[in-house]
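Re: beginner question about structure tokens

> Can someone show what the tokenized structure looks like for a real chain? I only ever see the sequence side.

Sure, here's an example I had lying around. Input first:
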Amino acid sequence: MRLHQLKIDFTAEQDRMLMQIAASEKVEVRMWLTRRFVKLLWPLLVKLAEEASPRIRTQPNPEARKALLNIEHEQAVSKANFSQPYDDSMRATPLGADPLLLARIQTGHDPNGHPVVAMHPAEGQGVTLTLDPVLLHSVCRLLQAAVKKSDWDMELKLPGVEPPETHERERRTIN
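And the corresponding structure tokens:
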């Protein structure tokens, strides 16, 4: 199956993120991502992003690797289409109409060297995604945006990307 669209939204009532994956064959898989699962998933995605790029992988300087990761992330995200809304039309749900509660993650690479992420519930079938650079970095961006909407007191950052500094005025004594 080929991926058609992917959506990640925070659902406050469930205190979870709902990931919806639509395939071009009019099939959809829905999955719940808990805070615990996201905390496990994020470092694995960052590691896959670092390993997927030969420029980053072969760079001996850790600071240069971080800078390259940020550059490649921005380049990949700029190629993604975030403007098209998710198509909520009826699709077949081969893994069930109710979202799967994800509990297990496995990462690796396919025979062509592309990153692969397998996400499964505690028991039963899950989803395995083969990620090209644009999709990998897009998933990272969607997760970051969903976490910002949550009340989870966590921030998903790429290594080397510092939050913007806030310039506070120096306190002065006025006589």
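Each token stands for a local structural state, so reading them left to right follows the chain. The chain has a mean pLDDT of 87.
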